Amino acid sequence: MVHPLEDVISMSCITLELLLRQLPASKIACRLIAAGTIALSIAYALPIDSTYAMGGLVETVPEVTSKVWLENGQQLAAVTINGEEVARFKAGDDSDKAIEEAEELAIKLHELLSEKKFDASSLLPARDEDKASIKHEGSTVISFNPFAGVVADEASKELDKKRHTEAFETSLRICNAIRTACGINTLPTSFPDVADKSALIKQEMLGHSFSGHASWYGGKFNGRRCSNGAIFSEEKMTAAHKTLPFGTKLLVKNRRTGDTCIVEVNDRGPFVGDRVIDLSKAAARQLNMVGSGVALVDCLIIAQQQ
I want to staple 216 with a disulfide (CB 3.0 to 4.6 A). Which of 121, 188, 207, 284 is the partner? Predict the structure, then answer.
């Protein structure tokens, strides 16, 4: 059986990379060659005529590469998507953890982008503790440590908060780079800013998400008092949720249309069927679901206020 040229190059490069990983960590030059190999492997392994099942079809798969270099005697590694740097890793000790994390992230992204059923509009940023993760259609498909190789002097709540935010920012940057490469509108980059300016009582909730059916309400409820004591207005960007604390801010995305909006929880509900959130009419309008009444959505927690 004759393999296409790009398949031969891909298999050969990956084999070479596996061999190079067995070399001592001190041989930085070999690690540099390995990183370049991975970049070449990924670039040549991409099928030229690949397309995506999403709103705006694209003809080529975004190029993912990893690279390694020395700066002031420190090993640095980065992952790029179509030439845009989306993640950088620093080696704070003599290990190759940062370099290996960058290489593995590049491979995981390449595999995700190469899937036939991949839909860039279904990507959401997320995190698990201080690990960055990426969700696709509600499921975690990639998880990595953006602080691999970095040794903290001491643990503290401020350090944890900083790492939680940075992990989420890295995930958001990757999601938006992919969406841009695929011709999809990017997600608002103000999430971390909104979170930082809020009086967070549960910082660990930042970046967590849930999915399900959303409905909207207005009409006769307009002017009535919400569960938090405020007067309900169908023209404000608010939502009802059964358990989330009042003041929680959510990014809500209509999975069918890709439209997004940011709402604040100020009421309780919905109490009909398996619905997970009830939106104001203004929010439903922004999500293009007023006519349908109900839509499948993904909700991302971006802040929780006292």
Answer: 284
Tell me how long the chain is.
Answer: 306
Query: Are 207 and 146 in a shared domain?
Result: no
Q: Among 181, 208, 240, give the residue marking a domain's end.
A: 181
**Domain carrying residue 69:** 5-181
Of 181, 213, 235, the residue that ends a domain is 181
Residues 158 and 50 in one domain: yes
Measured in whole angstroms, the distance separating CA 230 from the mean position of its chain's CA atoms is 33
164 within 8 A of 207, measured Cβ to Cβ:
yes
Q: How many CA atoms lie within 13 A of 192 on its CB side?
A: 17
Write the pLDDT tens digit of every residue in 64-100: 999 998 888 788 899 999 999 999 998 766 568 888 9
Q: Residue 273 class from Cβ within 10 Å (0-12 exposed, 13-18 middle, 19+ buried)?
A: exposed
Give CA–CA dist 290/284, Å, rounded: 5
* Domain annotation covers residue 230: yes
Tokens standing for residue 262:
């940011």
Instruction: Classify 301 as helix, strand or coil.
Output: strand
Do the Cβ atoms of 234 and 219 come closer than 8 Å? yes
Same domain membership, residue 196 and residue 171: no
CA dihedral in degrees (16, 19, 24, 25; nearest 10)? 60
Task: State how far the Cα of 101 lies from the Cα of 109, in Å rounded to an integer.
Answer: 12
Token readout for 59 is 């003809």
Residue 65's DSSP bridge partners are 80
Other CB atoms within 10 A of residue 117 CB: 10
Mind listing the pLDDT tens digit for each residue in 108-136?
A: 999 999 988 888 877 888 887 778 989 88
User: Sign of torsion, CA 41 43 44 50?
Assistant: positive
